[in-house]
Amino acid sequence: MIGLDMTTEMLELARRNAADAGVTNVEFVQGYLEDIPMPDASVDVIISNCVINLAADKNVVLREAARVLRPGGRFAVSDVIADPEMDDATRADMSKWTGCIAGALTDAEYRAALTAVGLVDVEVTETHRVHFHATAAIVRARKPDPRTRPDTLDTEPPDGKVRCRTRGGRERRWA
């Protein structure tokens, strides 16, 4: 497990919390979401809590996330989602940035941005209201794995029978 933060203070706090909890399988790295100090395709899961909406260029952040995710890797973040009705003045109001409201993407913008960087199975699940024009949400996506054959997934056989192969190669059928 690797924790990433841009500030020394947060990294020190994370190290203390890990030590207090007896967690030893974690490494903390200083860096920026816009330039993650990890090799391509080296991360299984990205988890973030209400940070991406604070980034000035979310497209760069999401492109970096897609870069470091391994094929089949998961993206799961909690973030603020702007209602489509949120006016441009509120979205740009610097005093709203401290409340994590300004800068938030809409559901459609988040979906489009994640799709644009190559992630699939994008889900945005709103959890609760945090502002008149914004909600907290869980945003999930996955980096496709070229080793899987998406054309064979979620399809029904022509005869309507479900089939699978056991590890030994024997075909099983259910009506």
UniProtKB/TrEMBL annotation:
Alphabetically ordered keywords of this record: Methyltransferase, S-adenosyl-L-methionine, Transferase
Catalytic activity line of the entry: arsenic triglutathione + 3 [thioredoxin]-dithiol + 3 S-adenosyl-L-methionine = trimethylarsine + 3 [thioredoxin]-disulfide + 3 glutathione + 3 S-adenosyl-L-homocysteine + 3 H(+); arsenic triglutathione + 2 [thioredoxin]-dithiol + 2 S-adenosyl-L-methionine + H2O = dimethylarsinous acid + 2 [thioredoxin]-disulfide + 3 glutathione + 2 S-adenosyl-L-homocysteine + 2 H(+); arsenic triglutathione + [thioredoxin]-dithiol + S-adenosyl-L-methionine + 2 H2O = methylarsonous acid + [thioredoxin]-disulfide + 3 glutathione + S-adenosyl-L-homocysteine + H(+)
Name by which UniProt lists this protein: Arsenite methyltransferase
GO biological process: methylation
Lineage start: unclassified sequences, metagenomes, ecological metagenomes
Organism of origin: mine drainage metagenome
Region (Disordered): 141-175
First-tier enzyme category under EC: transferase
UniProt xrefs under InterPro entries: Arsenite_MeTrfase-like, Methyltranfer_dom, SAM-dependent_MTases_sf
Keyword S-adenosyl-L-methionine among UniProt keywords: yes
Pfam families named in the record: Methyltransf_31
GO terms assigned for molecular function: arsenite methyltransferase activity
Domain Methyltransferase: 1-112
Entry's EC annotation: 2.1.1.137
Family the UniProt entry places it in: Belongs to the methyltransferase superfamily. Arsenite methyltransferase family.
Biased composition (Basic and acidic residues): 142-175
Keyword match Transferase: yes
Gene3D superfamilies: Vaccinia Virus protein VP39 (3.40.50.150)
